[in-house]
Amino acid sequence: MFWAAGGEHLWIPRLVAALVWVSGAVPLYFLVRRLMSQRAALAAAAFYLFAPLGIVASGSFQPDSWAVTAQLWALLAVVVYQQEPSKRHLLLAATAAGLATVLKLQAAFMVLPVFTATSIGRLGWRRGLPAWRTALFVVIAVLPASVWYLSRPGPSSVYFLPSYFLTSDFWVGWAQQITIAVGLLTALAVALAALFLARGLTRSLMIGWALGYLALAFAFNYRIATHDYYSLPLIPLVSAGLGLIVDSRGRLRRALLTVALTNIVFLLFLGLPASGALSIGSISSDASAIDAYQAAGNQVGHGSKVTALSPAYGLPFEYYGDVVVLDWPHQADLELDARAGHPDPPAGAALEQLVRTQRVRWFVVLDAVELNRQLELKQLLDSRYHVVRSDGYLVYDLSRPAGS
């Protein structure tokens, strides 16, 4: 894309991400329309398009907007299969689910419970759960993603902390992320609607979808309580639930609709401005930080034998400094690894391993505050290695002793 445009214009990936997210309203509309009225489908699509977190995420060139949209196509295909069972529809649904999980493995937590729940709802426990169709769906949905991710091991990261369930940080953090994504009261109203207002295939879909999100939350408990984009799949789920409430009748429906609409008004009028989603100005950037990235990149020769203590996992340094970076963990990451039961080796041993196995020559510091938090690392670098100092960075030459 950048080659065709004649330069690295960041509005291009942002536009692509936005179009992908917005296009998710299409499968969501048809999904709800197959089960409910047109009015319900329009209500679901409207909430999906104007949820503040979705608007923010749509401008971020990450896999999340693609994964959520792919999940919606997969869920639509599952509903089509359950309404019109055939081998062709089964393979279509399984293939769509497989694509969604390749884009982001967490999609399996949404599509597999929905397929299982809707199969049980249609055929019963004895015929729906052990059926060969369910097994085939699971294999096609999960196998390609498993092969892909196992063949491309990435850096280790903490997703699950067993002891985290026993802390208030998890429960409060999770509630805050739900509030940011869809509004906590709206989510509760939709949960009640799924239990008491839904019928037939709609009920199976909503229960399976909700159980999938709960499974995702418990499997990735640290991330779900600290990273808002892990609750992006909750937006289409709650959108469909709002369609269900709009399409229902009775006193419970009126009560749930009142709660949901009040919470949505609060979310839109306070959430949108606070998120910055209404801003159409240019993105501000720290010119001095960019200068430091570029100067440090020049200092190390734009090579690949570089480790760095740098903001945002070293990605800005890679981009502006034109280098390949092995990111050095921050103190918070070290503490989190220890809490998860796999503590990192001491700074000296970790640095020696990088030099020995990765042939790292340069250690670049672009976050002086973080270096002062890691006193063992700071003392090691200052005492052993030659350093080039600048206002915005430090570059330690791991091939030259201090004072040379």
Helical amount: 55-70%
**Sheet having the most strands:** 5 strands, mixed
Oligomer: single chain
Per DSSP E runs of 2 or more residues, the count of β-strands stands at 5
Q: State the distance separating the first and last CA atoms.
A: 46 Å
**Rg value:** 25 Å
Query: Would you tell me the overall average pLDDT?
Result: 87
Strand order of the largest sheet: 2-1-3-5-4
Low-confidence stretches: none
Count of individual domains:
2
Secondary-structure element string: HHHHHHHHHHHHHHHHHEHEHHEHHEE
How would you describe this structure to a colleague?
This protein has helices at 2-5, 11-23, 25-35, 38-50, 52-57, 63-83, 87-103, 108-123, 125-128, 132-151, 168-181, 184-196, 200-219, 221-226, 234-246, 251-275, 287-299, 315-321, 331-339, 347-358, 368-373, 375-384, and strands at residues 306-309, 325-327, 362-365, 385-389, 394-401. The chain has 404 residues and is mainly alpha-helical. It folds into 2 domains: 10-275, no CATH class; 288-401. Strands 2-1-3-5-4 form a 5-stranded mixed beta sheet. Helix 13 runs antiparallel to helix 15 (234-246). The longest helix is centred in the middle third of the chain and has 25 residues, at 251-275. The chain starts with a helix and ends with a strand. The mean pLDDT is 87.
Short description:
The chain has 404 residues and is mostly helical.
Which SSEs are present, and which pair or pack?
Elements: H1 2-5, H2 11-23, H3 25-35, H4 38-50, H5 52-57, H6 63-83, H7 87-103, H8 108-123, H9 125-128, H10 132-151, H11 168-181, H12 184-196, H13 200-219, H14 221-226, H15 234-246, H16 251-275, H17 287-299, E1 306-309, H18 315-321, E2 325-327, H19 331-339, H20 347-358, E3 362-365, H21 368-373, H22 375-384, E4 385-389, E5 394-401
Parallel strand pairs: 1-2, 1-3
Antiparallel strand pairs: 3-5, 4-5
Helix pairs in contact: 2-6, 3-4, 3-6, 4-15, 6-7, 6-8, 7-10, 8-10, 8-13, 12-15, 12-16, 13-15, 17-18
